[in-house]
Each structure stands twice: as structure tokens, then as C-alpha cells.
Amino acid sequence: MCQNYEARLRRVVQYIFDNPAGDLSLDALADVAAMSRFHWHRVFHAMTGETCAQAVRRVRAHRAACWLVQRDWPIDQIAARAGYDNPQSFARTFKKRFGMTPAAFRAAGLATAPDLIVRQGQTPMFPIEIKEIPARRLAAIRHNGAYPESGRAYEQVAATFSANNLWPQARGMVGVYYDDPDNTPETDLRADCGVEVGDDFAMPNSLSEVTLPAGRHAVLTFKGPYSGLKAAYDYIYGPWLAEAGEEPADAPSYEKYLNSPMDTAPADLVTEIHLPLAPAG
After folding, report:
1. With the CA atoms of 188, 194, 200 and 201 taken in that order, what torsion angle do they form, in degrees rounded to the nearest 10?
2. Cα distance between residue 200 and residue 139, in whole Å
3. Does an H or E element contain 95, and which?
């Protein structure tokens, strides 16, 4: 029975992510779930903590924010692609969620975010600590393609956890990013999107186990919308590594999400970027 509801949740969240400009009415989503609309709304809300309408608004806003800073599409085109009736309603809704208009958000781009420390030359800096991090075990789904599209994988993992009542065993969301998007074709980008779990967690068949080794990590704390994370990566891999005299280990960097866009304003999202380091001299 759990697998049946898991499949329904995953179909619906995949459909929302893939069709932000499509018919995302309760009737349409109930059809995707193959359940009566009178029951589907309650099932979705009980399992995810969101109404269908809240999930649609969140995914549309997330997709629009990523496109604004990572695509050169006109704003009216982004509004249409994200499922808004017109640029005016998009601007109103976006400002209510992000605290600024789409144009202002795009202008701020990757160079600014709340709580940045700016040094001479307007190069953004971020707080970084070197820590000993224990090994981590993830229940994950592999995403292939552009990183801004990885939300579809996280939605699928969340649906599995919701359908099987696994959230009490979760230790936070984690994303592992294996390739540099600046020099890797989008079609070749790879990421594992998952939830950290304990050694005693029974891995569902629909998820894959990913193990991250223990060791020294440079841990950068970023506060703000996920669309601004590229500036943090540029800093930790650029000025910080050189000035700190550190060498990266032969292991991928990953992100640990300390809160969730489901119940947190974009400006208050907190993400840790973990860069594994070679053993100390």
C-alpha cells in the first residue's frame, strides 16, 4: 500500500516540476494521482504537509528564481514558462515571496545575498570553517542534467519519505555535485539528491545508497536563495583555497540544507557547502 501511495506522490510532484505552465488544478493533479479529487487533496496534505496549491506555488517560484539568474530569457518569457498568467501577476507574486521584483532579483544576480561580507573590489566573501566531518549515508536519487533542474529529484525523494513515513529517520537533505557546470556540458552533469540517514535505516528499493567519506572539510555557510549559491562556489574554489593554502581531496563537494523552502523564506535559507580537503600537512 505504501508503494502505491509513494508512486502517486512521485508522479504528481514530477508532473508539477515538469509542467509549471500546465494545468496544475486540483482536478488535474488528482487525475495524475489516479484518485478522486475529494480524497487526493487530503492525502497529499497529510503526507507532505503542503496543500497541492502550496506545492504548485513553491515549485513555480523556485523554477522562476533559478531561470532568472541562470538563463538569459526575457522576464515575460520566464513568467510564462513558470506558469504565471502575465508578467504583472508574476512580479507581484515573486516580490511577495522573495522580497524584490524579478528584475531586481536578476540584477542582484549571483553577486549579492543577505549577510555577505564584501571586500575591496566587490568580491563576495563567505564564512568558512575547517571541520572534521564524520561519514554520511544518503538515501538518494541520481539526477543527470542541468543542476537547476535537480529539484525534480529532491521532490521524488521527498515523496518517497512522505509516502512511507520515513521523515522521523531523516537527518537533513544533502546534494552531492560531481561536475563543474562551467566546463561540463549540461547533459553530462551528475548529482545525487537525497536525505541523510543512519546506519540502521532500511533503504527503500526506489532510492539508492550513497556514502560520503569522513575527513577534513572546508564548510562554507551560505544564507539566501539557492539561486545565489554559484557565488559561494566561486569563492571557496577560488580566493579561499589559494589564501588558505589548502588542497581539495579526491572527493566531490556537497551541499547540506539546514532548513527547507517549504517553510522558510528564500532570504532565510541556510546551506552548508562542504569541500573535502586533503589531509593536513
Report:
1. -110
2. 12
3. helix 87-98
Question: CA–CA separation, 158 vs 167, rounded Å?
Answer: 9
Q: Which amino acid is at 41?
A: H
Query: In this structure, which amino acid lies at residue 50?
Result: E
Strand partners, 137: 197, 211
Backbone dihedral angles phi then psi of residue 75, each to the nearest 5 degrees? -65, -35
Enter the C-alpha cell of residue 39.
480524497
Residue 1 is predicted with a pLDDT of 41
CB atoms within 10 A of CB 172: 14
The DSSP output letter for 188 is G
Q: How many residues does the chain have?
A: 281
Chain-centroid distance of CA 5 in Å reads 23
- Judge whether 216 and 128 are in contact, CB under 8 Å: no
CB atoms within 10 A of CB 21: 13
User: Residues 6 or more apart from 73 whose CB is under 8 A from it?
Assistant: 67, 81
pTM for this entry: 0.79
Q: CA distances (Å), 260 to each of 92, 104, 224, 252, 271, in order? A: 23, 23, 12, 23, 10
139 within 8 A of 201, measured Cβ to Cβ: yes
Closest CA to 65 of 102, 13, 14: 102
Average pLDDT per consecutive 10 residues, the chain (281 residues; last block may be shorter): 78 92 94 87 84 91 85 93 94 89 79 36 73 97 91 91 94 93 88 97 96 96 86 87 87 92 80 92 66
- What DSSP character marks residue 250? S
C-alpha grid cell for residue 270? 541556510
Residue with cell 557547502: 273
Quote the CA–CA distance of 113 and 273 in Å, as a whole number.
15
Rounded to whole angstroms, how far apart are CA atoms 10 and 47? 12
Coil vs helix vs strand at 86: coil
Between CA 84 and CA 64 the distance in angstroms is 10
